[in-house]
Structure formats: C-alpha cells, structure tokens
Amino acid sequence: MQDQALYTGIWVSKDGSLRQELLPGGRYDESQGCPGQNRTGNYIITGNHIDYRDDSGRLAYGYFKNGALYHIRMILYREQPTAPIRLFEAATTVAEQDR
User: What Gene3D superfamilies does its record include (predicted)?
Assistant: First the structure.
C-alpha cells in the first residue's frame, strides 16, 4: 500500500492519446483517444512494477522509471495538478490593476 501512494494520480501520454488515473484504493480509470476505448479496473503496485486487471478480466502490466510510467508500448507522465484560482484573489488582482 505504501508503494501505491507514491504513484496515485493522473498519468498522460505525451500526445494526450492515453490518460490513466490511478485512484487510491487500487482502482484505475483509463481513457484512450477513440470513443468506447475507456477501461476501469484494479491495479497492484509492488516496488516499481504495476499489474492491471480491467473489469472484463484483461491483464496488463507496466513499470515506473525516472518519473514515468511505461505501459503497453507507451510512456505516461504524471499530470501536474493546476492550482485553483480563488475568486477573491482574482478580483483583488483585477482591482489592483485598475488603480
């Protein structure tokens, strides 16, 4: 479970065609560029190795190396979350610019 916490989050291919969210608790959601190519399932991480079993029973695996996830001939990179803009801060910034 400790290994899992290091890797939870959203992983995306460089071209954006594959997007995978590793959820806490061992579930994942995956979407590919084509409609109908979405998958959900379970995953287990041991060290830097990840095993997948989608809800239809299909198996896959991958591994983490140098901050990337290597999965089915693709390299996924962790998506960096964007900080939410707070309305008060945005209004204050605009008001300061108007002075």
Answer: Uncharacterised protein Atu4866, PF11512
pTM, entire model: 0.75
Domain that holds residue 28: 2-98
Query: In CATH, what number is assigned to the domain containing residue 10?
Result: 2.40.128.290
d(CA 96, CA 75): 44
Most confident of 26-30, 31-35, 72-76: 26-30
- State the Rg of the chain over Cα: 18
Rounded to 5 degrees, what are φ and ψ at 6?
Answer: -70, -25
Which residues in the chain belong to E strands, given as ranges?
9-13, 18-22, 27-32, 39-46, 49-54, 59-65, 68-71, 74-78
Rounded CA-CA distance 44/53 in Å is 9
Write out the H or E segment, with its range, that includes residue 96. helix 87-98
How many structural domains comprise the chain? 1
